[in-house]
Amino acid sequence: MAVNFDISPEKEAGILRLFHSQLFVTPPPLTRRDVDLSGKTAIVTGANGGLGLETARQLLDLGCKVILAVRRMERGEAARQELLEGRDARATEIEVWPLDLASYESVMSFAERAKTLPRLDIVVLNAGLYKVNQTMVATTGYEESIHVNYLANALLITLLAPIVKEKKTGSTPGRIVLVSSDLAAWAKFKERKSNPILPTFKQKMTPKWDFLERYGTSKVLGQFFVTELAKRVSPDAVLITTTNCGLCHGSELSREGQGHLIGHIFNVVSRIFGRSCSVGARVFVHAAASPVLGASVHGQYVEDAKLKPMSPLIYKPEGLQLGLKLWEETMDELSFAGAREIIDSLSK
């Protein structure tokens, strides 16, 4: 779907736009006057704290049943109890399911369990990480932030999309929302010059580890995936979108930096310029449920509760070719799960 943005991709990627958004723009909350999610079910990953917890809270406020997908069950149960406090809600309206994005097996088990749900309308893929130190995932060989932020989320989207298509409530298509970042637009993504591309992420970054660059690259890969997937899946089947809440203080993303100088710097900067997680989560909820945005979110990027351009690279001639190349490589990587066949079935 062609979109006329109110800003160019290059200006959207600019530092002045970022500061203006952080300091002067407050996304509005959605209320039940805007949308009533009673009877609907949502999955929120990384929901034990920070933005994920606040997203779950706001979806609950709109009447939605919520499944908290978490790596550590004890933290998920604590989050569940926090959400239940002072709320006139049945305990069954909040469930906690295990999900470890560092494991393809865990992702597939999670998706199998999702098939047992009577309905599934919304998926918010919030879980992600940045790595202060470079680490590789033993089972796949990929650098961990690429594995978790991109490949595992691409697998989860692929596996959950047909479930959302089949089990949505009513005639309105369900939505799958992948959380992105401003850093996607700033990533140099030098690996794109390699052929093939994905295997380069099994090699140590040299001459030194740049975690911000790698984090941004993992997020621009996600933008390419959503763009390509939306070309292959009708918005009548399921709406696939990506979103960005901006810099938020108190987010779980900062946990990796705890005990490091960069973590202290991040906390100070986010306190000065960042939004609260409750405000940041509003953007995710708009992407997941806003009736005003509706089907226009398909294959697009939601920021400040509006459609905005993704990374400038997405729209360049190079990006069009790159998106197709990454798509084919990603389908090859996820062939063990029958990714191509699943996507083909969604287009029928």
Features:
single chain; 348 residues; alpha/beta; Rossmann fold; 8-stranded mixed β-sheet; two-stranded parallel sheet; 12 helices; globular
Protein architecture, described:
This protein has 348 residues and is an alpha/beta fold. The chain has one domain: NAD(P)-binding Rossmann-like Domain (Rossmann fold). Helix content is 43%, strand content 12%. It has 12 helices and 10 strands. It has an 8-stranded mixed sheet with strand order 3-2-1-4-5-6-9-10, with helices on both faces. Strands 7-8 form a two-stranded parallel sheet. Strand 9 and strand 10 form a beta hairpin. The two termini are 19 Å apart. The model has no long low-confidence stretch (mean pLDDT 94). Belongs to the short-chain dehydrogenases/reductases (SDR) family. This is Putative secondary metabolism biosynthetic enzyme. It comes from Aspergillus chevalieri. Keywords: Oxidoreductase. InterPro entries: NAD(P)-bd_dom_sf, SDR_fam.
